[in-house]
Each structure stands twice: as structure tokens, then as C-alpha cells.
Amino acid sequence: MIVLGIESSCDETGLALYDTEHGLLAHALHSQIAMHQEYGGVVPELASRDHIRRALPLLTEVLTQAKLDKHQIDAIAYTQGPGLAGALLVGASVACGLALALDKPVIGIHHLEGHLLSPLLASQPPQFPFIALLVSGGHTQLMRVDGVGQYKLLGETLDDAAGEAFDKSAKLLGLTYPGGPAISRLAEFGDPAAYKLPRPMLHSKDLNFSFSGLKTAVLTVVKNHNTDICEQDKANIARGFVDALVDVLVAKSMTALKEQGLKRLVIAGGVGANQQLRTALNAAAAKRRYQVFYPELEFCTDNGAMIAFAGAMRLQQNPALATREYGFNVRPRWPLHELQT
């Protein structure tokens, strides 16, 4: 079965073809980072319009890569939510319009499930069950995963997501969008002893997170410098922020593994590409003889491959999930625990 995946939840347009017998056949991605940089963040209307421009050329690109004709597609999976409403509507309309034209079934995919399953695309994928740390611009959650569709929420952020805290703190330091990679690069030159920023909820007796206080701590330090803040001070603040956030993510992840009696940890979402986080997780896991699995770097951020793969896994598990009813709706807000199995 060959599944076309379409991802358009935010500011990346991703299309991919996944074959249940031969694996990932092709994928293509267009990022809107350059377009949104001058605004310091994603402008929803501009994002939606750009998805319209990019979708069909990317479809041609993946079909060419895979040396397939569009009629050889067996099903089309698209991101139904969560995400920006206008952006989601573009992907849904392209998927359902194409499916109608080709007389193929469609299936809506939960964006977070795509991220959650993306490490399974690796050459050495994790085996179920495992703990998943979903960490991105919009979400920070710890999940127990016993199989496709078998997810138990263990803890989540009570306010800002980790990726959001990265971006907002980077903006406070005058760094360019996207802020996460920028603040991480700057932190490499910082002194870890210069600023000991708070580790919110590090010692709480649950697996929830809170990062708004950490962001406020960065704001306070920046304001104390007034306008006189040199590049080394910025690097020191960045290092203090990254160390604090990473410490919390690592500690909670290790606690989740211990409490659930599991030894495999999967990292998913854009922040999973962060090298400081990877280094700290690897070190902590090695001490406890745990295993840590990551998506390939190209699949950490939003992409069509994860949607095609999630769609294929869902359809293999339950072919009845596919439909030839081409009216569609999207779900900008869609908690993962509401996902039907």
C-alpha cells in the first residue's frame, strides 16, 4: 500500500510517499522560515497562502523522486489537526480534492501522532512499549506508548511549551526567528556558572512541566542590564536558560521511565533536534541503562513523511478508517487523548 502524506499544520509544507512494503519512497519539504523572519514569528494568513502555492509542485516532486504516477497512490493521509486553522484547511482541501479526482480513500491524521511515530522511520526503530517525550513549539508532553493508537498521557506543560519558551527567550535576547536554534547556538559560548536560572517544577511530585517562570526569569535578567548587554552576557543568559530547561526535561523523562518500569525513551518534535538536550538525555540514560531513540534530524520538525507513515500504520491496523466521503473538517485544537483508536 502506497500512502501520500500531506503536512500543513503551521509553516512547513511537507509531502511524502510511504510504501508499507518498501518504506519511505520520497519526501519533499518547503519551510517558510525566510518569509516569516521579518515578522519575528509565523503570520497565519501568509502561511496559508504559501501552502497553496507549494502543495502541488511538491506533489510533482515526490512523484518524480519515487518514479510513480499519481494513480499508483492507494490512499492519502493529511494533517487534520492540531495547528493553524487556515493552514490545516489547505492541506485538507488538497488531500480531499486529489482523492476525489483519483477515487482514492483519505484519512485525517493527528499531528502529534505523526511526531510520536516518526522515530519508527529510523533504520533501528524502538520497539513498543516506550515512553515518549513530545517536545515542540506548541506541546510538551510525556506519554506512555504501548502501540499505534495506544497512548496514555503521563504529564504535560501547564503553560508554555518548551519550544515556545525557546522562541520567546531568544526574542528577549534580540535573536532572529526561529529562536530555538539561535539561542542554542549562542549558549555554546556561554558560561554555565554565570546565571543559575530556576528549574520550574523540577522537584514536583508529578510529571507536569511549567516554563513560563523560566521565561520570566530571562526577562528579569535582561531588564536588569537595561540596554547595556554585551554579546558575552547574552551567551551566558542563553546558557543558563538552555541548561535549566534541559535539566527539567531530562529529570522528568527519567522519572517517567522509572515509574512506568520501561527502559526505552523516544524523543519527538522539533526540540528533539536540540544537541544540548540530546547530549544530556544520552548521558542520563546511559547511567541507568536506558535506551534513547530520536527521529532522523530531517524528521524532527514538521514533515510529510511522518504523516504518510502514521496514515499507513493506521490503515494497516484498521482499513475502515479510510473514507471516500470527501467533505472535510479540521481540528485546530485536538488533545491527543481524544484520538480514536
CATH architecture of the largest domain: 2-Layer Sandwich
**Tally of DSSP helical segments:** 10
Q: Residue ranges: pLDDT <50 for 5 or more in a row?
A: none
Gyration radius (Cα, Å) is: 20 Å
Helix and strand content put the structural class at alpha/beta
Estimate what percentage of residues fall within beta strands. Answer: 15-25%
Count of folded domains? 2
- Sketch the topology as an H/E string, one letter per element: EEEHHEHEHEEEHHHHEHEH
CATH level 1 name of the largest domain: Alpha Beta
Give the total of beta strands.
Answer: 10
Helical residue percent band = 40-55%
Overall body shape: globular
Keywords: Acyltransferase, Cytoplasm, Iron, Metal-binding, Transferase, tRNA processing
Pfam families: TsaD
Protein name: tRNA N6-adenosine threonylcarbamoyltransferase
InterPro entries: ATPase_NBD, Gcp-like_dom, KAE1/TsaD, Peptidase_M22_CS, TsaD
Structural summary, described in words:
The protein is 42% helix and 19% strand. The protein is of the alpha/beta class. Strand 2 and strand 3 form a beta hairpin. Helix 5 (162-172) packs across helix 6 (179-187). It starts with a strand and ends in a 24-residue tail after the last helix. Its cofactor is Fe(2+). It is found in: Cytoplasm. Substrate binds at residues 134-138, 167, 180, 274. GO terms for molecular function: iron ion binding; tRNA N(6)-L-threonylcarbamoyladenine synthase activity.
